[in-house]
Design brief:
Strand order of the largest sheet: 7-1-6-5-8
Number of strands: 8
Number of helices: 18
Number of domains: 3
Largest sheet: 5 strands, mixed
Order of helices and strands: EHEHHEEHHEEHEEHHHHHHHHHHHH
Shape: globular
Length: about 400
């Protein structure tokens, strides 16, 4: 039996407001993704005698040959049609397992998506993945979506990621670092591009401290960054950096091409193809450089009034990325994680610009949220595309911090 725990969890407001909209959703949670099964769910499905589900379980529930834990014991094979959807959905995109066996029979993956839960010491923290359309709308369109609340939730223990001390730093120090990054991103009256660059400077200093094993200097680094933010000195360091739309267009375009070549759900592909058309792509190929830059700059102009209606949209996307990735304490070093943040920011903006360029009318707030959701669904969860993005930067020399700043 699965061990469920109930505890008070810290979460942004949008997570507390979420409820799945089921068959009314324009996308499908599982299309094209691996549906991992924990051991308890796998054994339950293998032993089921439900007359409708048993033949489906026999055909589609498979064990991983090299399972490493009880959390990834098996998986559900997707349909081999164009949508690559879950074979356990009915004609209304509703789950047959939920319908016939009840919510408790769902695997951890299906029961908790789009939720992600991390445990920092005694504190549980929950976020919702913006690859879910309803979660994206809640997170991106409400101004107070990233105010934090504490609420009781019940979660399978196997679904919780436990954060361990890293780089000889205790969890309190690691949480102080994350809190500073959130503080930087929420700094009022400072353009988001400048806030992201300050995060980059901080990551560079943090990585230097870690590499030199000067862990005792972390409190001083945090204090200096906070003082520089309060005094404006952090912004003064960035006075010479400006955004270069022509560079943004050229460096980001390969990400879109990679996404177009990968499998995507019909909903995601429709949005990607619209963005590509707005930027002048034809048959999955980018236009000549001058034409691409011209379309991109025109799209930026058309995007501006759309973003004016929800000026916090890209800030909320950055906050979501920081919370989801446990930034900057994931597996990679702080500088590489910052490069990943820049890649995802640049990709999302490219899609926004492309859709804006393709429209006569201004994009609505709902369409803006939809575009960010597609960026998350189409790129962030595909490990191959993530690796491709880093490789593009490395091969072209754009993983240097100063060059990264021009992409923001």
């Amino acid at each position: 039996m699965k061990k469920m725990i109930t505890d008070t969890m810290l979460m942004p407001l949008y997570a507390s407001r979420f409820a799945c909209i089921g068959g009314d959703c324009e996308d499908t949670c599982c299309a094209g993704w691996g549906i991992t099964l924990d051991k308890d769910s796998f054994l339950r499905y293998q032993s089921s005698f439900d007359p409708v589900l048993r033949p489906l379980f026999t055909r589609h529930v498979k064990r991983y040959s090299k399972s490493k834990s009880n959390e990834d014991h098996g998986h559900i094979e997707l349909r081999k049609d164009d949508c690559k959807s879950c074979p356990l959905l009915d004609d209304w995109k509703l789950c047959l397992i939920h319908e016939r066996l009840g919510e408790k029979a769902l695997s951890d993956t299906c029961l908790h998506y789009p939720r992600t839960v991390h445990r920092f010491g005694e504190l549980h923290q929950m976020t919702l993945d913006l690859s879910c359309p309803e979660a994206a709308r809640l997170a991106l369109l409400a101004e107070d979506a990233f105010d934090f609340v504490a609420e009781d939730r019940t979660i399978s223990q196997g679904f919780i990621t436990v954060i361990r001390p890293k780089e000889r730093l205790d969890l309190a120090a690691m949480e102080d670092v994350r809190s500073l990054v959130v503080q930087i991103l929420r700094s009022p009256d400072i353009p988001l591009s400048s806030r992201l660059r300050v995060v980059g400077l901080f990551c560079e200093r943090l990585e230097g401290l870690i590499q030199q094993r000067r862990f005792e200097d972390l409190p001083g680094l945090l204090g200096d960054m906070e003082q520089d933010l309060d005094s404006g000195a952090a912004m003064a360091l960035l006075a010479g950096f400006t955004a270069l739309p022509e560079i943004q267009a050229q460096v980001s375009a390969p990400f879109l091409m990679a996404g177009l070549r990968a499998f995507q759900s019909p909903h995601v592909r429709q949005v990607l193809e619209e963005a590509a058309q707005g930027l002048g792509f034809r048959d999955g190929l980018a236009p000549e450089c001058p034409d691409l830059v011209r379309a991109y700059e025109g799209g930026l102009v058309r995007l501006a009034p759309a973003l004016a209606a929800v000026p916090w949209l890209l800030e909320h996307f950055a906050l979501y990325e920081v919370l989801r990735e446990l930034f900057p304490w994931a597996e990679e070093g702080p500088k590489r994680q910052f490069a990943g943040l820049v890649i995802r920011h640049a990709t999302a903006r490219l899609l926004l610009v492309g859709r804006a360029a393709n429209r006569e009318a201004i994009l609505t707030p709902l369409e803006l949220a939809e575009t960010i959701q597609v960026a998350c669904r189409g790129f962030a969860h595909d490990r191959n595309l993530v690796r491709h993005g880093h490789q593009v930067l490395e091969d072209s020399g754009w993983n240097d911090l100063e060059r990264l700043f021009t992409l923001i």
